[in-house]
Write the structure tokens for this entry.
Amino acid sequence: LADLLSVKDARERLLSHFQPVKPTRVPLEVCLGRVLSEDITSDIDIPPFPNSEMDGFAVRAADIYVARADVPVILRVIGDIPAGAVPDLSIQYGQAARIMTGAHIPEGADAVVPVESTDISDRSSDSPLPGEVKIYQSFPQGKYVRRRGQDIHTGQVVLQKGRRIRAQDAGLLAMLGIAHAPVYSVPRLALFSTGDELVEPDKPLEPGKIRDANTYALGALASKYGSHSISLGIVPDNYAAVQERLDRAVAQKADLIISSAGVSVGAHDYVRAVVEKAGRLEFWRVDMRPGKPIAFGYYRDVPVIGLPGNPVSAFVGFEVFVAPILARLAGLNELERRIVSVTLEEPIESDGRESYLRAIVTANNGQWTARLTGHQGSGNLYSLVQANALLIIPSGVKSLPANSVVNAWLLTYE
Ligand code: AMP
Ligand code: MG
């Protein structure tokens, strides 16, 4: 065990090589899901002016203090304030102005009486302006007035750098006059699968061949984690082919190259030979299952991670090591992973390495329980397809009785 690197140490070593990619700006229409590259500070108050929360009448609260349904207060209506206009009137004692939702509160007024609490039934702005209005209810100062800066004040930091932009954030950026959001570029991940046994999904299966799953599963994970995946496809087991593909990844300005298979030290290990010639490559044995062997290095200054070939090992290796790197490249403050505490429905055996086991987790009244899916061999992709979570069995634990509590990563769509 001595030469095994803990998962945490391996992850930290890897992460220390990565920084967020370059910032850019994108139109708000396409900013959803992008990561802010700057803190956003408001340079205005929102609302920018006091405005009405209701269609009704702007009044002086003191004037209507005694208003009741059976003893209405009658006010003289001196004007009309539609939305978008600046009122050129001032409300004096005994006066009111008709006002629309979102319209500027006039001088002198400090409350709005909704039409429902008056004798005016026609609320449309183009109906004739009444000479007077009967107020049937008393409202305190400030009622139905959205004061200036009620939501946001000038100088307030409203969105933090490193946050993924959500729909409501796009709306706020627009309100602040930021038509182009400052965001990080989308990290570029080049992917290839190695192995003479591999064929494309649209090819017939010749004897001895299997279809390449990793290019697609890992490419999809890259998208899920907000990266652009550059698929370089299948690379046969020969030196020239591997080199050509790595050069293509560099030409495509990849921020990271991921290869799968060929990292277990074997005779047909061309990735190693090619990378070592143009850069460097280290092989690590990580205290985890599945996915113990991983490789890390640089090919012509572009970082390269070699994941194991078995589809489950490659997937778990990606979730454990590559996802946090993509989060860092993307500029995210933290990796958005959904982790829940689950109670085991059945006992679990492990081999003492930190294990990522495929499981089905179910929530019952907020309590999560878990059972494993089928055969846990690292070549069995179907057990991962059936799973909706990975259970994490800590290093050093060889068995856990039913009802033990462990952490699980939910394998969500996004
Ligand atoms: P290797 O890491 O090259 O020893 O491969 C380990 C196992 O994973 C072998 O059974 C390979 O056939 C299989 N394998 C490697 N790459 C892929 C891939 N892209 N898709 C599906 N299976 C793969
Ligand atoms: Mg192979």
